[in-house]
Amino acid sequence: MTIEPGLYHLLFISTTLFFIGVYGFLTRRNLITMLMSIELILNSVNINFIAFNKYLWANRLDGVMFTVFVIAIAAAEAAVAIAIIINLYRSHQSIDVEKAEEMKY
Amino acid sequence: MPSAIIIALIPLLPLFTFLVLGLYGRKVFKNASGIIGTISLLISFVIAAYVAYGYFFNYGYIDLRGQFNLSHYEKLIPFKYTWLQFNERMSIDMGILLDPISVLMIVVVTFVSLMVHIFSLGYMKGEERYPTYFAFLSLFTFSMLGLVLSSNIFQIYIFWELVGVSSFLLIGFYYDRPSAVAAAKKAFIVTRFADLGFLIGILILSFYANTLDFNALIATFTSPTSPELHNAVVSSFLGVSALTWGLALVFMGGAGKSAMFPLHIWLPDAMEGPTPVSALIHAATMVVAGVFLVARLFPVFSLSAPAALNIVAYVGILSAFLAAIIACTQTDIKRVLAYSTMSQIGFMMFALGVSGYGGENGLGFTASMFHLFTHAMFKALLFLGAGVVIHFIHSNDMKDMGGLRKYLPVAHITFLIACLAIAGVPPFAGFFSKEEILLAAYNNNPTIFYIALITSGLTAFYMFRLYFSIFWNKSPDIHTDHHNNTSLVMNLPLILLAIGAALAGFIPFGNFVSSDGQPLESHFNPMFSVAPVTIGLVGIAIAWMLYKKQNNKPEKIANSLSSIYKTAYRKFYIDEIYLFITSKILFNLVARPAAWFDKNVVDGMVNASGSVTQVVSARIKKIQSGKVQQYAIYSLVGVIGLAILFIYLWK
């Protein structure tokens, strides 16, 4: 018996990707790897949009358009984040996020 | 009536002098402070005499002849400033009240203070803290004048405390002597303790009368129909009416300040102060503040609370008798005079205590005030004379003295006049005042009369014991390289006071001062005077036999009555009893637990709040770790929590 892929399957995938991204963001020490996790989160949201667009509003393109927006924003935000990482590297000589704890008590 | 400003100058001039000498005395007026103090007091005295003359002979006497024969001396209030108003009847005012006893007191206080100032010009010359001394004297004079001119019972309490402070400063004047410091502390603490009773008494009286002003208070408590009097008499505590409690507690304050038994312990030790201070404060003025207070509230005492008046009488006679016995054994001349003061004030107190109100019954009141007046004269004279002797010999003890009549002629004669006056020998002043007291006692309470008679005999004995021991007895062994010991500034006050002590008896006192303000004719009864004068002369004769020439009769008598002598010499062990009660009982049972509670519980709670804060903060501060990922976790958890809350719990 084959199972037709439906809305729930896509939503399951996007949720899984989301939490993998959150886990990566909270756990990794390398700043670049944290950035990659953020990209994962954003992409999982994109999958969510497309899934709802296909299965709920099949004759409209709202979801797709918003996805394009999110991709563009993600790219811009990645550029800004890289700039911050470069600045941080210049002052700390390292991109280990555990070393940047000046705001400690 | 002169304007209120002139009358207010009487206490304000010494206050102004105190401020000037206190602030600028040491730098600017070092040598002139004595002159400044004396001149300001001279002006005060002149104004006081002028006010007294005007009051007694001019405007004070409300002549109501033809209207029920009620001519009397009126209580005038030239000045009243309402300071704190509590309700429409009760307020704390600052006012001046002129009535026969307050006018009498301002004359006495300014005169004796003036004599002491003049005397101190000589006695304290060369003293390092000369300006400070005169500043303190002026502070005291201001406080005492404010006390007697008070129109409001709370105002009298304010000045009462001020007088206590001045006394503390002056007793402890030689502050590098530990005995003087201890004496000043003792005086202040004992009188402060008595003032606790005074304050409670004020609160009780003002609660029931709903007023603090003297005139209104007396009127409320003496009119038989007033509802306040009814309330005060009906409500009782432990079987005694509230009015009697209030008056008895007020008397406790007066007893502390006037050194009545058992609050008399501070007076002999107060002799550590300079001798002119003893003359002013502890002989003539401050110690009579208690008598003055009872006299001020006398209508209430005699008309509405005779039980309280009984207490006054018995405390007075007990103090008089006890002090007379102790004075017979002391060897320090200032202590003998201190106990003599306590005894004479006891006379004044019991004279008030046996007095009734109005007309002939009020003889005790007149006698008490008369004795206050004459006592101020001769006691100040005695102390100043003792000051001259101490200045000459540089010692207080009778054993170092003897035969001084050749060296100090003026002091000798004036001291003799004062001793004759205090012994009640006619025609000196003490005779007349003591006669009236004894007559008042005879008419009212025979027990008190007989004890008073014996006390008069003892008074004559110990005073002449003092006189003979100083001026006769041994031949002197003085190295006569002394400076001129007859300086005018020190002898002039002696002479002036001696004139007062000799002639003051002839003033018809009853015409001016009496319990209800109406003039009182004093009938002089020669037959009555025989007993007291005889007893006085017997006392003098015994002292003559024992002390005029050096012999060993006193030691033989002392040895034969050894236990009585020893008890009297140790002042009936009252100091030891006080020491026992305070250090063994009060300190251990009350003070130590209270201190423990304060240090461990009260302070402990405050310290605990601090240390708990510190401990908790040390634990929580790790939340702020500076790591971005942990902050992200916190916000994620928060978002999830809010999501669950809003989606599933609060729809």
Can you walk me through this structure?
By secondary structure, chain A is mainly alpha-helical. Chain A contains three helices and no strands. Chain A is elongated and about 55 Å long. With 651 residues, chain B is mainly α. Helices cover 70% and strands 4% of the residues of chain B. Chain B contains 25 helices and six strands. In chain B, the strands form three sheets. In chain B, strands 1-2 form a two-stranded antiparallel ribbon. The interface between A and B is small, with 12 and 11 residues.
Briefly, what is this?
Chain A is mostly helical. Chain A has helices at 7-27, 31-56, 62-92.
Task: List the defining traits of the structure above.
heterodimer; A: mainly alpha; 74% helix; B: 651 residues; mainly alpha; globular
Architecture blueprint of SSEs:
The complex is a heterodimer of chains A (105) and B (651).
Chain A: H1 7-27, H2 31-56, H3 62-92
Helix pairs in contact in A: 1-2, 2-3
Chain B: H1 4-24, H2 33-59, E1 61-62, E2 72-73, E3 76-85, E4 91-98, H3 100-123, H4 130-148, H5 153-171, H6 178-209, H7 214-222, H8 227-234, E5 236-237, E6 240-241, H9 242-257, H10 266-269, H11 275-284, H12 289-296, H13 298-304, H14 306-327, H15 333-353, H16 363-393, H17 409-423, H18 429-444, H19 446-471, H20 488-503, H21 526-547, H22 553-560, H23 562-569, H24 574-620, H25 628-649
Helix pairs in contact in B: 1-2, 1-4, 2-3, 2-4, 3-4, 3-11, 3-16, 3-20, 4-5, 5-6, 6-9, 9-12, 9-14, 11-16, 13-14, 14-15, 14-19, 15-16, 15-18, 15-19, 16-17, 16-18, 16-20, 17-19, 17-20, 18-19, 18-21, 19-21, 22-23
